[in-house]
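Weekly modeling sync, notes
Attendees: AB, CL, MP (scribe)

Item 1: holo prediction request
CL wants a bound-state model with adenosine-5'-diphosphate before deciding which constructs to order. AB pointed out that an apo prediction alone won't tell us much about the pocket. Agreed to run with the ligand included and paste results into these notes for async review.

Input as submitted:
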Amino acid sequence: MSQESHTTIETKAGKSPVAHTVPPALEVSEISKSFSHRRRETRVLHNVSLTVEQQEFVSIVGPSGCGKSTLFHIIGGLVEPDDGVIKMNGKFVTGQRGEISYMPQQPALFPWRTIEDNVLLGSEIKGTSNDQAREAARHWIQKVGLGGFERAYPHMLSGGMQQRAAFLRALLAPQELMLLDEPFSALDALTRSEMQTWLLELWEENRRSVLFITHNIEEALLLSNSIYVFSGRPGSILHKIEVPFPRPRREEIMDSPEFLRLKRQLSGWMREEQAKNRTPRT
Ligand SMILES: Nc1ncnc2c1ncn2[C@@H]1O[C@H](COP(=O)(O)OP(=O)(O)O)[C@@H](O)[C@H]1O
Ligand SMILES: [Mg+2]
């Protein structure tokens, strides 16, 4: 089912029930950013605005170097934007840390911590780690096929298994909004496809608000409610599409004419953008 742009709930407060609107999980408004290095300025993001509604899965696709990871750093409060603001659940959080759970581009498991302790890291940092959190971690470790590896260290796991552990760490962190930065880019095609199906099922069972960066158009179409297409650097939003497939989704949708049509459209936009970036500037 596609998400409404706003979710309306009824409150019990007051004499007459008042319908009011739940603010989006994330609102990025008119963000711009340049970096200067040895007196040369690189414009990385230009006037980027996007929204992730509550429990919505939103993807960003765009050429490499167009500022996608930088945008995540800005949302996470690690980098200050030059212009623009970030709101989460209706509150301004520009420059604040600790509001999101983040899975960086490289699976950054701590080598000296066991898988279980890596998965529990988010709640530990937030001070919400307790027996219940540990039990939840064990439950999910089993569920994602890492049962028996609770006490193992990251180097004992394959790349795909490490990704799953890193993903679980983001999933079980207490923050509502998850930012996933190309989580499957280091995996071979088969493992990647398995991980996509796994993430799809997991997300449909345990809905979180997700902002997902990927290069892979099929992956974006399979998983997302909506997709933003970024231009080359400085990254700005060229297009936004709503993905119409009902949920729960299965991989079979990838063979449907509508899926292929959307895939063609998105690939066309991406090719145009890449061609523009190859054209020498005069
Ligand atoms: N801290 C930084 N200082 C200077 N330049 C940076 C910094 N972080 C990113 N950049 C530059 O910003 C551009 C966009 O990088 P990035 O956000 O990683 O792109 P993407 O994730 O879309 O591939 C690159 O040219 C990169 O070199
Ligand atoms: Mg990146």
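Recorded for review: Residues 1-16 have pLDDT under 50 and may be disordered.
Action items: CL to compare against the apo run; MP to circulate these notes.
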